[in-house]
Amino acid sequence: HNRVGEGIKQKKAGRVREREKRYNDWRRGVEGEKGEKERKKREKVCKMSEENPSRPKLKMYYKGVRLNPTPTKPAPPHIGDGEERGEEEREEGKVERELSAEMMRTMSLEAEGEERRAHECDESVVDGVETSGGQLREGGEVGDVEDAATMIKKMSVEDEVESSSGSATEASTTPLPPVCVCYAYNDYMLKHATGPYEGPERIQKMAKEVVKRKLDKRCDEILKGREATNSDLQCVHTAEYIAGVDAISNTVEEGLKLKKRVVRKKMPKAAEGEGEPSLSAADSMKAAKEENEQAVKDALRAAAVDAVAVMDAAVNEKTARAARMAAGTCMEVVEWCASQHRQIGGGGDASKTRAAGLALIRPPGHHARTNAFAGFCFFGNAAIAAVHARRRCGYQRVLILDWDIHHGDGTQDLLEHLRREDEEVGRRGGEQLGESIRMISIHRHGDTAQGYAFYPGTGGSFEVGNGMEKQVINIPLVPRIVNGDNEAFGDAEYTYIFHHFVLPFLSAFSPDLILISAGFDAAKGDPLGGFEVTPDGYAALTRILLDHSSADMVVMSEGGYDPEACANSFAAVMTEITRRNEDEPLPESFSFITPDSMCKTYEAVVKASMVVGFPPPPLPTPFIRTDNGTFLDPDLSGIAEKARQEYEQRNSGSAM
Asked: Which of 22, 85, 117, 433 sits 20 to 30 Å CA-CA off 226?
């Protein structure tokens, strides 16, 4: 027992000395090349780290080096199986628990939680000690140590299992720079009008879930958001449209004032002998009210892309300012992420750190066009943030990843508008945004079981033309109608798309900023979506991006109309971005919902790969070739060939 304990102490002391030496070498090197002001700032951070080694929330990073690791609570002692164990086994378990408790007490609180879990069993066995027939060899005297030998044997088995799982985890994740995180939310956006589905309770529930899980405490900074100015909005919208949105709110506000005057207006009394009172004053007020309501309808029609948008539109006197707040908040989060490279990374060295931000906003924005609103959206938040990142924040390549269940037709329209602007700018010799901003939209497509096209009815694989094919990539998911209902898509289908298209695209494009239009209407239980993505699924998508890209990331809320599902999904995404070592691991794989949904997913990825020139993706795991070269699922055999024919036919048609 003493030899085991001494070996652990020596091994632990060596590891602590190694960490202290590495930290001191780094500190001396930094102090030698920085000025007095930076040196004092670093010393203050280091002092805070040294004085508070056990504070779990104090996680300071500088140049990618973690200054004060967070300790984890010691694992509880092993609990026996009670009456099922014999007397001898209970005594053996007692010795094991006492020795395990002693080992735990010798471990320093400065050990990192992740390192502890990966090497805990390894540290429990001294190097050079073997167990065989109740004897200790190579480093200890032979003796009757049956209890210790039994314990070490059990620990060796646990160590073998844990080391294998640990190596798998280590191999699947490459070490990337640490993430500093901000979170932006302003409750003024709750004052925007409540529509048929899009209402303030959505983001209100999401904000409460963030506080409930204490996810805001994990963030480096909390932002309150700001309003976008006219010049900010005019990067993608016309001045006339912006003025029209303002006019809608002003018209509604005038109508409210008029309504109050109508209510407060007293009816004139009739003089004696004159019969009924005169209603000329009331009639004039009623006529003015009707005129105002007509003005609101005219303003809506002038700013809407279609009649459906007017029918679903919910506006009030706060709408214009709330829409500006949503767009401005996204811009503020992008600015904060860009500033972290100057403050923490040292001179803008993006390899030293990366930043992430979450903007909880409404109204959403990915349906808003250049000069028209649609689908509860007034300003294109993602497109505005992307242009702002390119022109004013120093980002060179920006990817907009839209996983809302509805096609981001507005964002696509705004990028096409930028493309047309680029042609004019190129003739003048100015800077062109061009293909430095790209978009991937993963959405539901096709007809519903009720017989109408799923909104907005756009977003086919080969829909985009005019040189925009490689700038806007659509991945439509077409559910099959079975027994009067639509089959769903879920976690496995989405993670397949991420692994076999999004990741290759990230590798080829190498963005330094990823903007996620994070609609949660593909979540299970949403009244409009019909898909079955779980919070674990959204967390897995976020983790895939974090583990395979060093780009900064900004998550902007879009649609999602089940408040409970939205809250859980947003919290799952935020948990991944602010993940700490003590968090529970994610599930490694998901099950496909149906063979047909997997076939449709494979088809969508094949077509998207054709558009950008990627090789065909691998077959989904459940559907593989047999020995004679055929597919286990017959529907999969002709997918690639049919997609190729459709692509060639589309190209030949456009050429004509």
From this structure: 433
